[in-house]
Amino acid sequence: MSEETTNRIPGPGLGETIRGAVAAVESLSALEGRFEDAVSAVVGALAGGNKVLTAGNGGSAAGAMHMAEELSGRYSAERRALPGMALCADGTALTCIGNDYGFDSVFSRQVEAFCRPGDVLALFTTSGRSANLVRAADAARALGAKVIGFVGHGGGDLAAHCDILLDVAGAASPRVQECHEMLMHAILERVDAAFKAQGGAR
Questions:
Q1: Non-local CB neighbours of 160 within 8 Å, separated by 6+ positions
Q2: Would you tell me how many other CB atoms lie within 10 Å of the CB of residue 138?
Q3: Is the pLDDT score of 202 beyond 50?
Q4: Whole-number Å distance between alpha carbons of 28 and 150
Q5: Is the pTM of this model over 0.85?
Q6: Per DSSP, which regions of 27-163 are E strands?
């Protein structure tokens, strides 16, 4: 037995992790209809002069920021900048609101400030149990925005507060986050197709 095998750190091998990821990705085909609804909501909002707000906690905050920067920057195709804003990106806003109103209000307070009728709020969470996301969803819908939930495990408490639910069911949380990135990238590919290099929408 080699020294490498003898000293192997316990845990799943790469092959097992890959198989789990492939199974999770393949399950996304069941979301085709909801995915098209999400594409229509995002492209429709942007084409109408509205914006996409995003939010999440922890690793899901990274997904939320990723989506926003791909809109204001560029995903793949050359096109005009599009208004995407991550509500989890400003540390001063998060600590100010958290200090004054509590952590459950860190996103809903910003929604009140920045969200307008016709906007889209995209929320990223593996569990759906975060009170700050539920409050943000309720605040956005009250203002006339659509809420897209990138969720897992059925969507938890957040499920009933979303207009469109992209639920990665039956997968471990790391696989859920990976699938959220794939879904988000697929939406961005359609955004790129809708907004051409000359800056217009179809």
A1: none
A2: 14
A3: no
A4: 12
A5: yes
A6: 52-56, 84-86, 120-124, 146-152
